[in-house]
Amino acid sequence: MEKVTREFFMLPLEEKEKYPMAPGGIQGYGHAFVFSEDQKLDWSNMLALGVEPAFIRQPKLWPTNPASFKETLEKYSGEIRELCRRLLAHIAETLGLAPGTFNDMFGEAVQAVRMNFYPPCPRPELVLGLSAHSDGSAVTVLQQDMSCAGLQVVKDGTWVPVLPIPHALVINLGDTLEAISIHSLIGFISNSVLHTAVIVILERMYVYVQVLTNGRYKSVEHRAVTSDKKDRLSIVTFYAPAYDVELGPLPEFVTDDTPCRYRRFNHGEYSRHYVTSKLEGKKTLEFAKINSTTTTVTEEN
Ligand SMILES: O=C(O)CCC(=O)C(=O)O
Ligand SMILES: [Fe+2]
What region holds the Fe2OG dioxygenase domain (predicted)? Predict the structure, then answer.
């Protein structure tokens, strides 16, 4: 996947522009999250594609050059989909829920891929590769090439780099690492075709798990920085519930001590809100909060 993606980004601009991201759009080649002429742009180019269910695909935006791109992405995405389902089953178990809880609830899950290419930047102190944000997915699987570090996550209020490890995928997991059977997670990965994968387990989860667990697991704020020496590629799969499935905190996580903090909404609504908002830390999650004006940032981070 890395090879064909890199080949795509190395094509002349005219060739890549055959798959343009429409202004305000989220699929195709270009810059997403641009809302004004004077906005400082992130130092990256992206190719973003909806993959599943089939109706979200925009086939005209799938590159035909390199020739093996489509087939490679299909195969890769099939493997990653299975990985996400298994991860959700294990995450449910870490919460004392039946393994199928999230997968059953999510219906025909929405899967999209974003390939980010960050060219070398002469003044890396002046611009980010990708502004700070949390992802609007349930699980995100991130593959970064070995050429250069760039991904950073917020941990205890500071930015910490997530260094690339050969053949590793980055997946965010829950706060209470002790409670999670890391070995069983690695075990199931090694049974899959992605058998060379090592999992880098971070501390936190993405938006839906934060909402479903009523804040017990939290989404992680992250960003990408640029380098003046090398380019960098990341391939990021977002896995989320079907658009029309309404979700809210599970009753198991709402108690007298932890009153309900999020309202019910569906991924269609959330996704529209997400793509029409600037990347600004965890601000998009305000959408889901009950009494968001009175809830402090510290509480939510
Ligand atoms: O390039 C990276 O490591 C971060 C990419 C990312 O966070 C995203 O595409 O949402
Ligand atoms: Fe992200």
Answer: 101-241
Distance CA 90, CA 100 (A): 9
ipTM of the complex: 0.99
Helix ranges (DSSP H) in 10-131: 13-16, 69-94, 101-106
Q: Which of 163, 234, 237, 278 to mutate to test the pocket of ligand 1 (most atoms within 8 A of CB)?
A: 234
Residue 126 has pLDDT above 70, yes or no: yes
The predicted-structure confidence for 230-239, as pLDDT tens digits, reads as follows 999 999 999 9
Which mutation among 43, 44, 142, 274 tests ligand 1's pocket best, with the greatest number of atoms within 8 A of CB? 142
Query: What does DSSP assign to residue 154?
Result: E
d(CA 86, CA 283): 29
Residue of 299 and 276 predicted with greater confidence: 276
Collapsing DSSP states into helix, strand and coil, what is residue 78? helix
List, in order, residues 6 or more apart from 104 with CB less than 8 Å away: none
pLDDT in tens, 159-168: 988 888 877 7
Residues 111, 57: Cα–Cα separation, whole Å: 10
Q: Does 124 sit behind a cis peptide bond, omega within 30 degrees of 0 on the bond before it?
A: no
Residues with CB under 6 A from ligand 1: 114, 116, 130, 135, 142, 144, 150-151, 222, 224, 234, 236
CA-nearest residue for atom 8, ligand 1, is 236
